[in-house]
Amino acid sequence: MAQRKGCLIGCGVALVVGIGFAAALLFGVSKVVDVADKTLVDPKVFTEAKVGDPEDQVRGKLPSGESFVKETLKEGGPAEPAGSTCAWYLSTDDGGKDVLRFCFKDGKLADKAEYRMK
Questions:
Q1: Number of Cβ within a 10 Å radius of residue 96
Q2: How many angstroms separate the CA atoms of 84 and 46, rounded?
Q3: Is residue 65 within 8 Å of 117, Cβ to Cβ?
Q4: What are the structural domains of the chain?
Q5: d(CA 83, CA 104)
Q6: Per the confidence metrics, is the pTM higher than 0.70?
């Protein structure tokens, strides 16, 4: 009887641990999908965007860019132009190792840069 009770307790603990692991895995996958939805950009969008293009036209082709990896994407890039507002994205090419930065000022694309993520 005691042996059977110990087995039931062990199975219960394994079940709780398994559910906890599955929940953590699901959370991690949802964060990866969230980053992909908000930060991945086709390099063609970067190439086609020209300095001086209207901001709303360029932003209309970009995801929100608001993600928990934003600060990491800033690292290693060139200085932001004074008075501009910048957005950072990952390129869909090359396994997401290239950062694409778009900077806007006075309603226009003021600068864009492409660099390797550190």
A1: 15
A2: 18
A3: no
A4: 2-116 (3.30.1450.10)
A5: 9
A6: no
